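Hello, quick one for you while I still have it in my head. Could you read through the record and tell me how the tokens relate to the sequence? No rush at all, and the record is pasted right below.
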Amino acid sequence: MTKSSRLIAFETLYNIFYDGSYSNIALDKALSGVSDDKAFICALVYGVTERKITLDYFIDKYVTGRIKPKVKTILRLGTYQLLFMEKVPNSAAINESVKLAKQVGQDYYSKLINAVLHKIDNDRNIPDDLSVKYSVPQNLINMWIKQYGEDKVKEFLPFINDRPPLFAIANKKFVNSDELLYELECDGIVGEAYDDFVIIENGVDLTKTKAFKNGLFYIEDLSSYNCAKALKAKPGDIVLDMCSAPGGKAFTISQSMNDSGKIYCFDMYEHRLKLIEDSVKRLDIKNITTAVNDAAKYNEKLKKADKILCDVPCSGFGIIRRKPEIRYKELDTVKDLPQIQYEILETSSKYLKSGGNIIYSTCTLNKKENEKVVSKFLDDYKDFKLLEEKTVFPTPFGGDGFYYALMRKNDD
């Protein structure tokens, strides 16, 4: 028997909230055998995950006591459709939720689900409280306000639940951005060309396009792209990309070098390096070599480099709109990251030639992982100088939340 779209969404959300699955992995697995309504299923899964705090605010108003996990998941699905999916009729949101309860063995709670959703349907007043309004835990909001100020936080919060922009970076070996847009339009893609990339405006699987298969572009967020460009790699340089997978920044650096010189891309795991190798082959890049390496441990076999990219593991608070469950991390779970990040930066800097540039970057908004790591490094290593430091906050058509610091090692 074919599962309904709402049942697939229910099972996926249950895995995310109660089994600890990552949203993108759980969703990819759920959609592997599905041919219809993929967009609707994705919208439900990502939407409920994004808006969990808002949804629970309404549910908790009308349900007293503990709610069984399956019933809570059904109520979240129904509430999300009522509050945030204008194309779903209110009656369908409620009736299909009641039907879903019977499908997952929760018939006993059908009347409760029906009654609660009708009450929410007649309420719909989302309070101005920042945590409830934007579905962000209060402790994360408090951290951001303390670090960046209330005005800046109120400025970027409205965009963290938006659909993130999709950037197709033109492979300049074959096309410029205008030519890439033409090729994509032949495959039914709607977009707009800019200097080196195309912003995609319709939700499609770009990997299925002829342009992708022919290596005319790669996907990279704009913030990551600008970070890689800021390294200012030149033709003939030796570059180390210390935590490279899946490789987008390395591909941009290769373009800056006109596919000359040498880029060494490292990761701790073979299967992640395979992602880079597959793209290198597709894009016809000649100057990238991959190898397993632990970035936190000094490796005397590595070459001295002209430029180094040090994009470290981080809490990910800048990419919440791409991975919505990240916002629910307990802050205590990321408290050890700055020490790991510092060790990677410190170790990586030892491979840099005098007069060379190194970039430290993260996709998080947390000064403890960003400015404070760089400040400590500059205090400890006086032969390095800060050239540029930049924090990017999410905007509707811009890149993800991101931080980078460009530093130069003084000439001997």
